[in-house]
Amino acid sequence: MSPRLLAAVVSVPALAAASGIATGAAAQTGAVTRHANTPPGLILQGVTVKPGATTLYLSGQLAALLDPANKKPPAQLTSDDYGDTKTQTVSILNKIKGILAARGFAMSDVIKMTVFVAGDPKLGGKMDFAGMNDGFKQFFGTAENPNTVARSTVQVAALASPAYLVEIEVTAAK
């Protein structure tokens, strides 16, 4: 890193303090610092990852079928075969938990999440933000995992199949 860039990085907190910008509390664990919102909320304001940390980027994940024995052709599957937004969110986060574990990471190592939510036809084409958050809360800010993440949630016109209501990609670091 160049000295000029390092100076710019170091001076950001000083600039924020001087300008009165609230940066929130920070919780540091090794190479990762989590910056809470002020007041603390469901998601973080941001995360700082120091050089030398191991970072894992997961591609977007989709829900598993509710019934693994379902033999319908893919073109005939509907959201009823995968569940509502909350059910799909839980399914995806369980899948992500398994992928992370297979690579030596845990859900507590997730630092950034992007959630794509399609409009639910049963809700007039609007995304079920509350349902997605209900699923999210089962994995973050819990006794098992007190950490939360920096997160963006966007409604999209559609996902890879009309049967999917949620797709989630994550970044983990430790």
What does this entry look like structurally?
With 174 residues, the chain is of the alpha+beta class. The chain has a single domain, classed as 2-Layer Sandwich (60s Ribosomal Protein L30, Chain: A), CATH 3.30.1330. It has helices at 3-19, 85-102, 129-136, and strands at 26-29, 32-36, 44-49, 55-61, 110-118, 150-156, 166-173. It has a four-stranded mixed β-sheet with strand order 4-7-5-6. A hairpin with a 2-residue loop joins strand 1 (26-29) and strand 2 (32-36). Helix 2 packs parallel to helix 3. It is globular, with a radius of gyration of 19 Å.
Fraction of residues in β-strands: 25-35%
Structural class: alpha+beta
CATH evolutionary superfamily: RutC-like
Helix count equals: 3
- Largest beta-sheet characterization: 4 strands, mixed
Total domain modules: 1
Number of strands: 7
Shape, per Cα inertia axes: globular
User: What Rg is obtained from the alpha carbons, in whole angstroms?
Assistant: 19 Å
Q: In the CATH hierarchy, what is the class?
A: Alpha Beta
CATH architecture identity: 2-Layer Sandwich
Low-confidence segments, given as residue ranges, are: 1-24
Mean pLDDT metric: 86
CATH-assigned fold name: 60s Ribosomal Protein L30, Chain: A
Helix percentage: 10-25%
How far apart the termini lie comes to: 20 Å
- Order the strands across the largest sheet as they lie in space: 4-7-5-6
Order of helices and strands: HEEEEHEHEE
